[in-house]
Amino acid sequence: MKAVVIYTLVGFLVLFSVLANADENEPMSTGVSIASVVTAAQPGLTVEGEVRTVDAATNPRLWGKGRPNTKRYGTTGEESGLCAAGSIDYGLSFNTVDWGSAADACPAGTWVCSRADLESGGSLSVCDTARPGNSATQMTCDGVALTASNLNHWGWLADSHLSSALSGSAFVESNLVAEFLNCHSLAVWCCSQTAP
Fold first, then answer.
1. Alpha-helical regions (H) of the chain
2. Backbone phi, then psi, for 30, in 5-degree steps?
3. In the CATH scheme, what is the code of domain 62-193?
4. What are the E-state strand segments in the chain?
5. Residue 141: count of CB within 10 angstroms of its CB
6. What single string gives the DSSP state of each residue in 18-36?
7. Which of 20, 36, 89, 148 is a good FRET partner for 135, with 20 to 30 A between their CA atoms?
């Protein structure tokens, strides 16, 4: 017990000596760099390289996860001839997913388009992509193939549909927005800023 009291007393004396000799205008050094312990505060969850932005309706963007082999198609091929709405380029993903997994189908550096994104150039317009596909590339919830003829590829938008909590919004190349049960397997409209 005597040893504990002595060590505690010595500890207080050392601490008091350090504090008494410290210049109040100089920071005390503990030997640990605060910069190595504390990082800058960041609002919300961030993803490396992600830029926090919102669409024209001020909704947060749902960023593509950039999974291997994800790609999007414009009117002339993979990443070429992308359709445009104001300062936004967009194309249709190759992969098909359910509405809740839409971010999985978009390449890194893109986000799942919202209706507001596609209307940012004024109004929705036809975007006949060169996305390859046949009737087996889009499926209903029970696995029945949706017919996907030329100018008839559907793609998910980030928007949920107002009439049902079980539905998402989809946009077809021929310029129509509709509601689908969110378990359908569709391609996804992936957006990016137009390169300067």
1. 2-21, 34-37, 115-118
2. -100, 0
3. 3.10.100
4. 62-63, 72-73, 83-85, 88-93, 111-112, 154-160, 167-172, 176-181, 187-193
5. 13
6. HHHHS-TTSPPP-SS-HHH
7. 89
Query: Structural domain boundaries of the chain?
Result: 62-193
Give the Cα separation of 69 and 35 in Å (integer): 39
Q: Any idea of the CA torsion for 186, 66, 115, 167, to the nearest 10 degrees?
A: 40
Digit-coded pLDDT (tens) for 12-57: 444 444 444 545 444 444 443 333 333 333 444 444 444 456 766 6
Numbers of helices and strands, H then E, in the chain:
3, 9
- pTM for the model: 0.68
Give per-residue pLDDT as tens, 118-141. 887 667 788 888 888 755 578 888
What is the average pLDDT across 183-193? 91
For 195, the token pair is 């390169």
Cα–Cα distance measured from residue 91 to residue 189, given in angstroms and rounded to the nearest whole number: 6
Q: How far apart are CA 110 and CA 91, in angstroms?
A: 10
* Residues paired with residue 83 on neighbouring β-strands, in sequence order: 90
- Both structure tokens of 144: 């029945």
What is the average pLDDT across 154-180?
79
| 179 token code pair | 């509601």
The mean pLDDT of 151-178, rounded to a whole number, is 78
